[in-house]
Design brief:
With 455 residues, the chain is of the alpha/beta class. The protein is built from twelve helices and 20 strands. Helix 1 (14-29) packs across helix 4 (108-118) and helix 11 (314-327) packs parallel to helix 12 (354-377). The two termini are 43 Å apart. Bound molecules: iron/sulfur cluster.
Length: 455
């Protein structure tokens, strides 16, 4: 009997990626084969994204392609939770009525149920073939750790809570067991993700759970402290500027957690933030940034912004530029506001023409460019550790990242051999190296290798 084979297409953000990894892990645990092509597969699972309109289109196209190439398709992910416009339960079944089943995000059990129905599971599951850390889609040396699902906020431009529901945190014992398994499997960098990392545990009333037999509260600061004991890089994403962030600053200052914060500010002006219904809109963000930098001088701050939100006046926009000058954010992304179907911001008065929104987003990026360049230049002349992600064969350099760079979204370090050294330094992918930073440009750094760091 041939082993039933499932093709898998994974779209969307790191949170969706974690969902994909869970389904793939379960498939392998039950003895299914996983295929990266449509042809060899008995059916195909497409994990979709539905955050912005372009992502919806990309997901619908991917489903269409899978139907054409394979014909038997199960859809999961954020787009699966989006209702149809003509009374269908989901937009996906409205556009692609031939799909076998549709589920929303974080629905491993439902996806598996649909797979069992359409492709019965093999009689003898090879559970021992699955590594303890599960199946992952990232390279072996870094991994995303999803600590919660959903979100209690209701930002007016976002439909994630309507798709993913309110905050549901994973108990700290479970999160730490996964983190420990990842480290045992060779992961050197853990990237903590969720919709609102700083709210972790709120829904569980910070309930006490057990980590290696010790009682520990399911709470942001306690989680960061536990992760800091694992001896690997720990990077925090989607953190909101609440006062309790201060509790983890000493761990960053002591080098136990990466001095890196990804804080999606989205805007600076209090009125725009109120219209956006942003969490922590009343916080004095500039003051907070200054306090963070005082406590952790080496802090790398990443943030995202939206330009041209409905009703954004010229003076509110100028406030944003002024904020950027003062905040000196290291890594910044800015998008022109784009209405998302179903978001309450669509009904706000004062919608701006797309040209104005785009022009403002471009102005933000142009304004930020010398700031980013200057912030990056402070690395030049420093000796630091980088994690090697790969090799650029054409340029003959190793490609790595400092603690200030998250994979895929931030910059890289091109690492060359030291011209004054007669001995090449052997260092492999997924290993740390000590380097001297010799040059910086707008986004990336250049370094010469000093030594490999013992594993
Ligand atoms: S914090 Fe706001 S933008 Fe982020 S997921 Fe929650 S509602 Fe959406």
């Amino acid at each position: 009997m041939t082993t039933p084979t499932v093709g898998f297409v994974s779209l969307g953000c790191p949170k969706a990626l974690v969902d994909s990894e869970r389904i793939l892990t379960q498939l392998r645990a039950e003895g299914y084969q996983v295929s990266s092509s449509y042809e060899g597969a008995d059916l195909v699972v497409v994990n979709t994204c539905g955050f912005i309109d372009e992502a919806v289109e990309e997901s619908l196209e991917a489903i269409g392609e899978a139907l054409e190439e394979n014909g038997r398709v199960i859809v999961t992910g954020c787009l699966g939770a989006k209702p149809g416009t003509r009374g269908e339960r989901s937009l996906v079944s409205e556009v692609h009525p031939k799909v076998l089943a549709v589920t929303g995000p974080h629905a491993t059990a439902e996806v598996m149920q649909a797979i069992h129905q359409h492709l019965p599971k093999p009689h003898d599951p090879f559970t021992d073939l699955v590594p303890p850390q599960g199946v992952r889609l990232t390279p072996g040396h870094y991994a995303y750790l999803k600590i919660s699902e959903g979100c209690n906020h209701r930002c007016s431009f976002c439909i994630i809570p309507s798709m993913r529901g309110d905050l549901v945190s994973r108990p700290i014992g479970e999160v730490m067991r996964e983190a420990e398994a990842l480290v045992k499997a060779g992961v050197q960098e853990i990237l903590v993700v969720s919709q609102d990392t700083s709210a972790y545990g709120l829904d569980l009333k910070y309930r006490t759970d057990f980590v290696e037999g010790r009682p520990v509260r399911t709470r942001f600061a306690e989680l960061v402290e536990e992760l800091s004991r694992l001896g690997v890089w720990v990077r925090l994403h989607y953190v909101y500027p609440y006062p309790h962030i201060d509790e983890i600053l000493p761990l960053m200052a002591d080098g136990k957690v990466l001095p890196y914060l990804d804080v999606p500010f989205q805007h600076s002006h209090p009125d725009v933030l109120k219209r956006m219904k942003r969490p922590a809109s009343g916080e004095k963000n500039l003051e907070r940034i200054q306090q963070w930098r005082k406590a952790v001088p080496d802090l790398t701050l990443r943030s995202t912004f939206i330009a041209g939100f409905p009703g954004e006046s010229e003076s509110e926009f100028s406030d944003l530029l002024q904020f950027l000058t003062e905040a000196q954010i290291d890594r910044l992304g800015c998008v022109a506001y784009s209405p998302v179907q179903g978001a309450s911001a669509n009904t706000l008065p004062g919608a701006l023409p797309i040209e104005v929104r785009q022009e403002r987003a471009d102005r933000v990026m142009a304004h930020q460019q010398p700031i980013s360049e200057q912030r990056l230049a402070r690395w030049v002349g420093r000796r630091t550790q980088v994690l090697i992600d790969g090799i650029d064969e054409e340029e003959g350099v190793l490609v790595g990242r400092t603690g200030g760079d998250a994979p895929d979204i931030d910059g890289i370090v091109r690492v060359r051999p030291d011209p004054n050294s007669r001995h090449p330094v052997p260092v492999g992918i997924g290993r740390f190296a000590t380097v001297d930073i010799i040059h910086s440009d707008d986004y990336d750094l250049e370094a010469v290798i000093v030594a490999a760091v013992a594993a």
